[in-house]
Amino acid sequence: MRIATFGILAGLCLGSPTPLRAADLDFSALRGGSYDAPAAAAGNWDGAYFGAHGGWSSANFGFSNVFQPMVANYTRATAFETALNVSTLLRPQSVRRDTGSFGAYAGLNIQYDEFIFGGEIDYTYLGLTGRTTDFIGRSNVTDGMYRAAVLSGSAATKIEDYATIRARFGYDAGNFMPFVTGGFAVGRAQVADRVEVQLGEYDQATYRSNLGSATPAYVFNSGYRVFDQANPGTAVLASPVVLGRTKERIVGGIAAGAGLEFALTANILLRGEYQYVMFDDFDGHKSHINTVRGGAAVKF
């Protein structure tokens, strides 16, 4: 009986007009109803990551009002301030400096459909210093008194390093993720300001009334190292008074940027990024930093 059955099956197979092929067989039942194909490496941005970055930073250093408080304190309640506005005479110009920068970053991505939300922290070292100088002299005659002021100032700002904490928003474009970012920054800054002030005055009205007089009156004067009563035009101002301050400050600001991330593999992420950081008005100093950088990270 078994031999007859086998013969019938063999005949059916050999006599079939279309031979059976492996591709015609459905093995889905063997996989189970919940089978899913493995996720592709690209397009899955979920997870924490850690990496390093390096690039080029260009910073603009501003020095608004760095000298005024020191000079105003020195000349307060004097005719030099009221007649010459001595504390407002120095007006240092802003400067731009460039340097290489490097650091590290870490963050977390959470993906919803094609949108990615997350947060990131980073650290950047640049050690960048901006310096400026200014020099000015002024004189006038008020109520018969001749007054002269000579000021020379120098100021410097050094941004040693900074860190940021930012939110990120990106879009899943397969292997690529364009993103924007924004948040807060905190940095270490050193400021150094120095002003040399020379002030001198004499009673020009009395001097002129003495001309041709047999008994000339004393000509009041102050601030001069050499003063000829008969010829005040040859007077020499005394050595300048030096005013200065040096501080190390922890400064706060804002950070923003945009970039493009590339998934080289499921766990290796490369990026190009632009970042803007603004530290504004600390003791009259400010710094705006623009950085273009690249980075590489491992995603867990």
From TrEMBL:
Domain of life, per lineage: Bacteria
Cleavable signal peptide: 1-22
Segments forming a coiled coil: none
Keywords on record: Signal
Listed InterPro entries: OMP-like (IPR051692), OMP/PagP_B-barrel (IPR011250)
Family stated for the protein in its record: Belongs to the Omp25/RopB family.
Protein name: Outer membrane protein beta-barrel domain-containing protein
Taxonomic source organism: Methylobacterium isbiliense
Organism phylogeny: Bacteria, Pseudomonadati, Pseudomonadota, Alphaproteobacteria, Hyphomicrobiales
